[in-house]
């Protein structure tokens, strides 16, 4: 029997687990605040950001949203970040990626005060994570570790294959999986667009994390019997639905489900976990900035 990994359920448990920390902060006069900054007309980005704001409201985090025109001068974004860095009510800042081409993405990541960088993308935070003492683990890979924990997936000694090497998913996921730490200790292979024999690598994998942004790249025939399959991909493909599209992952669910031991769906798998871990990092950030001890789930 294949187990469906329910990201909505585990994300709800994480959100519940944040209530005590949020209470402790409020008792000391602090409401955790998360600022989201959107500089894009992309409808998918707009959807994600509004979901993040709704999550904040649900758990009692103060959500602040800033929207900039996609063709506004880059300076407007840099100035916005400076203002949010200086605002004591803002404990976490997320600039939705991608930013327009005329904006220097690396400058954006460096501009965010590292203690408010709840994405964990600032070079200082990347360095800390790689060195094994993360301040904020990046939300998607951290959420995946929480899913593995919730479904008793043993990573120690496992063969893991990460498909994709992006700065926001593939690289940090690989880093966490190879760490000498809980939900690490996996023997990890990273595949990318120049990989010659993706199927050959996948055939040996006990754990597959698919984050390529290619609809249904990974199919059941490539997988090892009983593998745990984590599908990060969120691809909008044209379909005769009310919205005119449907979401598909980087894994062909129908064929993969036949072979996998445990598998995440899209939607309802990794996506809700990414959002839950953003709330987690925001509560942690508020604790660090106010010296209030907070218990985290
Ligand atoms: N569920 C969630 O919470 C999140 C979902 N996503 C989704 O996850 C997917 C990946 O996102 P992200 O990491 O930002 O994407 P990027 O486009 O930044 O990176 C994609 C990676 O996949 C590799 N790749 C592309 N094609 C292939 C292929 N045919 N075979 C093997 N590797 C390939 C690329 O290789 P190369 O480096 O050589 O170009 C690259 O490393 C997207 O669908 C995105 O929407 C992203 C973030 C969070
Ligand atoms: N600075 C920054 N940080 C990010 O974390 C970040 C980013 N930029 N840019 C884009 C990607 C993508 N991402 C998602 C988060 C949640 C869902 C999510 O909640 N998905 C739901 C449903 C989505 C839907 O219905 O459209 C699900 O999978 O069930 C998806 C994608 C965060 N990202």
Automatic annotation (TrEMBL):
NADP in keyword set: yes
In this protein, which residues make up the domain named Tetrahydrofolate dehydrogenase/cyclohydrolase NAD(P)-binding?
Answer: 138-287
What's the domain of life for this entry?
Archaea
Question: Do you know which CDD domains this protein is assigned to?
Answer: NAD_bind_m-THF_DH_Cyclohyd
Q: What UniProt keywords apply to this chain's record, in alphabetical order? A: Amino-acid biosynthesis, Histidine biosynthesis, Hydrolase, Methionine biosynthesis, Multifunctional enzyme, NADP, One-carbon metabolism, Oxidoreductase, Purine biosynthesis
Point out the coiled-coil segments of this chain.
none
Query: Might you give the EC number(s) for this enzyme?
Result: 1.5.1.5, 3.5.4.9
Q: How does it assemble?
A: Homodimer.
Classification via NCBIfam families? PRK14167.1
For this entry, the protein name equals Bifunctional protein FolD
